[in-house]
Amino acid sequence: MYAFKRHSSAIAVAAALMLSAGFPEASAQSVLSKAERASESMEPALRHPDQDAQARAKLEALRARMGKQPNIVWLVVDDMGYGDPGAFGGGAAIGAATPNMDRLAREGLKLTSAYSQPTCTPTRSAILTGRLPVRTGLTRPILAGDTITRNPWADEISLPRLLGEAGYRTVLSGKWHVGAAQGMRPHDIGFDEFYGFYEAEKEISQAVDKRRYPDLVLNPERLAMLRKTGASDALVHGFKGGQTTDVVKIDSTAAMAEGDRMTKEFSVAKIKELAAGNQPFFLEHAFMKVHADNFASKAFEGKSASKYPYKDDVVEVDAYIGEITKALEDAGVLDNTFIFITSDNGPQLDSWPDAGYTPFRGAKASAWEGGVRVPGIAYWRGMIAPGRESDDLFDLMDLFNTSVRLAGLEKKIPSDRYIDGIDQTSFLLGDKGRSNREKVYIWAERDLMAMRMYEYKIHVKVVQEHAQWLNIDMTTISDVGLAPWLFNLYIDPKEQYPVGHRMNAFLASMAAEMKGHAATFKKYPPKNIGLGQ
Ligand code: CA
Asked: CA of 362: how far to CAs of 94, 222, 366, 405, 463, in Å?
């Protein structure tokens, strides 16, 4: 209870600080904003009636042709950098070609301003609830040894639950990382079936990789202590309301290296089965790779030009994205399937060279662009015009609202809690669609750090790295000084030269927007589940 009070008031204090020290007087009406709030519990959105009408017509025509709602497939890579796929400037140029992601980007919509949360668990829970981690309590990765004081899922309404109630079959294949305890597993929170791993790659490999963790692996007493924390060491298969079994025990780095091959084989077979049925389906395929520690699988060792395990794993993940897409085509459902490809956060530079590439400042866990700006590819043959590219804002939480809308369930979005996601259906399906999102709020655990609005980004707190590459292990969060740090990302994408003092009117307008955001926590207080800072 004490902790809950403390962190609620911390947010209130953050809001108050934002509006006093450093900030110019916030005007009641933000001059920059064009977004409208449809209801108190919904994030304000930009209105585009023409593209919305086009999207609705396209969906109705498809529904009439297919006779059922569309399938939804998310392909979520772990810790892949913004600059890793060739379509985003990486690929062969940095030693790991990504022909499949590049083709899907070319034949679909490439999103250059897509935003995740700074780390795994927050993003993974936010995209399934449409809610910021600070609202659900899932503010940081759950790690071996953590004690969760309250099941955050007990009162969250997840996307698979909504879809399942409407007749969808729902499957999570691959990495979960949002709780391994009973009640928190994928097949407890709405998915019909789960085939994969509860934890991040490193959480499992630290018990078997004697080269990286000799002090654990070669010390039986310490290894036993690690086991006592409940760390999982298996690929698990579970069914909603049914059995959960360990399929493969991960007892070596070689076994870990094959994890994504196994979940890919499952997804490919499952797509065949689901496509043959009468129900639409939702498949979230979440890769374990390319999260550290990367070990090249047998079939992909040395397959990247660079030969480094991280890069071999990028090549492997890209190949599987191609195979999963081909499985949808072979099963005859590609035209009725919305596909979204992304990464759950920026590259984990702390583990370099076992890490991805970002052209931006900072990396995983940071509120700088390097932590939260991720590649986004929306692909839907016949529905999303090929060759599109947009720098309009897309928050990965928008996948919740958009998927709900594609399933025709927008009236089922709960109104008793705040929903941070925005329906982006018309942005994606309109041939010249513009984003319905005007702002992205960037939180680091329980600190509201920054806001992106159009090409501007304002920081009210900043992450300070005390060593250039260490964005997790050697950082502090500090308040800004005389004024918030305002960057124009179009002329300064690396966030190096604040220009706030030249743009006071914009600062005031953006301050008003942040005040509005902070105010949503008064009526809808955040949840605390025991994940301390
Ligand atoms: Ca991650």
From this structure: 19, 33, 6, 34, 9
